[in-house]
Design brief:
With 177 residues, the protein is an alpha/beta fold. It has two helices and twelve strands; from the N terminus they run H-H-E-E-E-E-E-E-E-E-E-E-E-E. It has two domains: 47 residues; 112 residues, no CATH class. A hairpin with a 5-residue loop joins strand 8 and strand 9.
């Protein structure tokens, strides 16, 4: 992702400038020094594309959260709701293994890029929300700021796989396969 590399270089540059300013002025404020080291470390993580998996309490596993990396994910079958969050990374979700008509899947992209590969024969409802981002729906329409809904092959009861999609300074593409 070219944008991620550019952001990483800017963050490294800012951290280096703060660090050099603090070291050569000998006005070593511990907060400024820690902030500078934090900027440099964040930039290095962005460049390396490292993937962070989960939290210590086990609420998320490595399939649900991607930070500074990329992933190719197959959402699970069954009615249990699932959440997929991508931060400063990219992810592809392929829905061909989902066989439940009553399933909620939440997909969030924060400064990230997600691609949702949806089978044409799957009943799906997409609730898209974007804040300074872009969500492109399978019918070619998009939302850049605000909300939009899309429904395909829902039955009389309205049962379908429900995708709640959010893009904040990111991009989510919903594509038929």
């Amino acid at each position: 992702m070219k944008a991620r590399r550019t952001i990483a270089l800017i963050v490294i540059l800012l951290g280096t400038i703060f660090l050099l300013n603090n070291l050569f002025d000998l006005d070593l404020s511990i907060i400024k020094l820690l902030l500078a080291i934090g900027f440099v470390a964040l930039g290095i993580l962005l460049l390396s594309g490292r993937r962070v998996s989960g939290f210590a309490d086990g609420t998320l596993d490595d399939k649900e959260l991607v930070i500074f990396g990329s992933a190719y994910t197959y959402p699970r079958s069954g009615p249990k709701p699932e959440n997929y969050t991508t931060i400063f990374g990219e992810r592809t979700l392929k829905f061909d293994r989902v066989d439940t008509a009553e399933k909620l899947v939440t997909v969030s992209a924060y400064f990230a890029e997600n691609t949702l590969l949806i089978p044409k024969d799957m009943p799906v409802t997409i609730r898209a929300h974007a804040v300074f981002g872009e969500v492109r729906l399978p019918d070619g329409k998009e939302v850049n700021f605000g909300d939009r809904s899309f429904a395909h092959k829902t039955d009389e009861k309205g049962s379908s796989v429900v995708l709640q999609v959010t893009a904040v300074f990111g991009e989510v593409k919903c594509i038929w396969v």
